[in-house]
Amino acid sequence: MRIAVYPGSFDPFTNGHLDILERAARVFDRIIVAVLVHPSKSALFTTNKRVKMISEVTKGHKKVRVVHFNGLLVDFCRQVGACVIIRGLRAVSDYEYELQIFAVNKQLEPDLETVLLLASPQYSFLSSSIAKEVARYDGDVSTLVPPVVAEELRKAFNPRRGKKQESAQ
Ligand code: PNS
């Protein structure tokens, strides 16, 4: 069985992430989405919330499991028996960062491969930061993130707007 790990901060998970995940699921037998517990990075959503949202988004995908991880990615991959790391590449600007991650992981665990999937053109501009920026100013994020995530972004940035609409119904 070919197990792949799809790691990231996923703060929050976007339609671009979902696209990479679904395409990777066509190639590998099992994909473990590994949400990084990042002590030094201030995230909008807690790790548990991020895991919960991605689990909800991917609940129809039998091959996909969602967990959080601490520490080195290579150690996590060893623990779960993964042979491949999946990463998405949007543009040339991502390349240096991905090359750096690849090089470190290859040094630490030579048997572990990294597969870079090119973002589908409609998501080549999309990032978690962009989705948060649009949501912060009450913009429409419905094409940027899955509905579950859009709702959580709404609650995080514009809690009153939703309540007003709900009470008006
Ligand atoms: O979504 P991100 O923030 O670009 O993902 C980065 C991630 C999680 C892949 C990377 O930071 C990571 O693997 N962190 C775990 C610690 C580690 O293994 N570091 C060495 C490789 S950078």
Keyword list:
globular; binds 4'-phosphopantetheine; Rossmann fold; 7 helices; 5-stranded parallel sheet; alpha/beta; about 170 residues
Structure explained in plain terms:
It is a single chain. This protein has 169 residues and is α/β, with parallel strands linked by helices. The protein has one domain: Rossmann fold (3-Layer(aba) Sandwich), CATH 3.40.50.620. It has seven helices and five strands; from the N terminus they run βαβαβαβαβααα. It has helices at 15-25, 47-57, 73-80, 92-108, 128-136, 147-157, 159-168, and strands at 3-8, 30-36, 64-69, 84-89, 113-118. It has a five-stranded parallel sheet with strand order 3-2-1-4-5, sandwiched between helices. It starts with a strand and ends with a helix. Bound molecules: 4'-phosphopantetheine. 4'-phosphopantetheine binds next to β1 and α4.
| Structural class based on helices, strands and sheet pairing | alpha/beta
- Could you give a short account of the major beta sheet? 5 strands, parallel
Total separate domains: 1
Mean pLDDT across the residues is: 94
Radius of gyration: 17 Å
The arrangement of helices and strands along the chain is EHEHEHEHEHHH
* CATH level 4 superfamily: HUPs
CATH class label? Alpha Beta
- Per DSSP, the total helix count is 7
Which strand-content bin applies to the residues?
15-25%
